[in-house]
Fold these 2 entries.
Entry 1:
Amino acid sequence: MDGQPQVAPPMEFALPDYAEVRAEALTVDTRAVLATGPHKEPTASRAAVALALWLDRSISTEELKAAAEQRCAARMPRLHTFVPLYTTNYCDSECKMCSMRAGNNRMVRKFSGRNEIIEQLDILYRHEGVRGVGFLTGEYGEKYVRLSTAFRIGWAMRTALDMGFERIYFNIGSMEPDEIDVLADWVRRDDPVTMCVFQESYDRDTYRRFMGNTPQNVPKADFDRRIRSFDRWLDAGFQYVNPGVLVGLHEDLAAEIVTLVAHGDHLRARGATVDLSVPRMRPAMSSRDSTRVGDDDYLRMMAVIAFTCPEQRLVLTTREPQSFQDVAMGLAGVISPGSPDVAPYRANSQAQNAEDSSQFLVADLRRPRHILGRIEASGTEVDYFQNPAATAAV
């Protein structure tokens, strides 16, 4: 910085001015940016670079993908994994694209107690060979239930760490400081625990349309509480965060790219280790999920984000079929196979993904060990995975 005073990053994220970012993007030399080496940063803001690359259709998606893969190849480990574990499908929110919404009377509600959670972790550890797990619940309105959920998931994370799991994710909705305090009774600040609070859409009108506009009765409808959760997590001394958008919810992909990249950059400036998620909408029971994004636009979106934020790992899940996973794997830093059903894993068969108890339906239900083993067989090592087949052979 040549003696210039360091400016501390703001403590809370503010949505970027899209018009200002677009004006800056018009000044970006996209061809020069595309030639940027793996360890160099373009001079323009990340949000403007991402928007410029997205808009410049003289650069093909394949060109973008190749350049992004080259930048991401310098990241080690190249790929790691975690498997989602839904511990309940009860929820107080009313998200229109989600089967778990409170008003879905066709949903068969389930809740995992202590023994079932331990059994599921044992299956993932011994039979699937994974050492990364993500705990999920719905989001709740009453403060006592929110605090109880933080306590319960804190216990589940501590249990997994004590069993030998090496990476933990959790997605239980927005969190306030007192809820983080309760969860933090179970984990240390330096434990590898990642908070996932996907904004779903950074556009307030789209957010209200899908999540509701009465936060007093529908907890996820509180846009601002949700977006502040990561800063509160960092304020409490934790490091790992995973923001994301649900691709296809808001029709303006450019705006979502700009704000997600800006959010990730804000968290990076605060010292966080950042993963980014851009899951594509999947069928869910009686939900309004008709918005679709085609493969080329989706792949371009992933390539733009991976190029612009090479140290921030994109999470690729089995929402996508194997054929798309193969195409996009070089852009990902995390592969997350599994099911959005409650306690779905079985010792000797594929996971359950029943329409009447799952948050949504996935495209690929192969067992995690088979998905991860195939990736390793292709020459890419997967961190947080110890292939049971290889262990048995030894």
Entry 2:
Amino acid sequence: MQPVAAAASWDVPAIESAGALAEWLLLYPSELEWYADLKGLAYKTKRPRIGHYHYRLLGKGSGSTRLIEAPKPTLKELQRRILAEILNKIPAHPASHGFLRGRSIKTYVGPHVGKRVVLKMDLQDFFANISGARIQTVFRTIGYPESVADLLGGICTNAVRGYGELYRRPHLPQGAPTSPALANLCAYRVDCRLAGLARSAGAEYTRYADDLALSGGEDFEDCVERFSTHVAAILEEESFSVNHRKTRIMRQTVRQRLAGLTANQRVNVIRADFDRLKATLTNCVRLGAISQNHEGHPLFREHLEGRVGFVESINAAKGARLRRILDKIDWP
């Protein structure tokens, strides 16, 4: 596996051997082997204190669950350095909008505003379906020799027993700081192919993590059902899976919803979500904040601050209305 031609322009550190990688990460060689865990020792042990991750299951709205794999402090610091000094130096595809500085769900939705039809598709188990071997390949294409690429891939992936077959093999852990950037790099070919396919149909394409959106005018509307089949075929060829239950074809006559925002006339928050948040804030003023913390958030004030800040980032006028109510809350 040779580095891609563009790698010559990437300002990443030169690491020529496993020993040089250990030195770069300020580790002894034995420590590097332990954290990379290429032999799967942490997977084989039944003692969680020896493993490198904490685990938490989160429920999804669909009734399924998502496994959050949070690296322990030392491993997390190693991943943060790899992210800051290697992965963040590699440019993402223009169609990718998730986890990138200067891009957001607002920029993800923006190209689809006012379009006659919007096609929304969702990738199944986005992080967990990206294998450890694929991550090692990413580091080889960046330009690292096989021994270094394999160790970097080991540090950035995980395998765990007891949570189903999907997680038993090395994969990208959802919860590691390196996973979003690596997922974007693994999806680069998908973004190239789908952006080209969209252009051929006079359509726009953007992706936010596992959410894909394509939109266009009358010509695109005429072929959108067939087009979704082509998209699914490309994703399958690139080793991604479509969650077909979440595929939506949304015309202007319905609410065109993407990543929790609407795109019919402008990028905006969903009215029902805004009204619920406004009611919660108003009741906090009238009845006290504690009475409205129905989900038991340990930092309820910060939780509401974050939700109001999100609305402000999407619609300044609506955000200002919520901010005025938030400022009236008498916090205990």
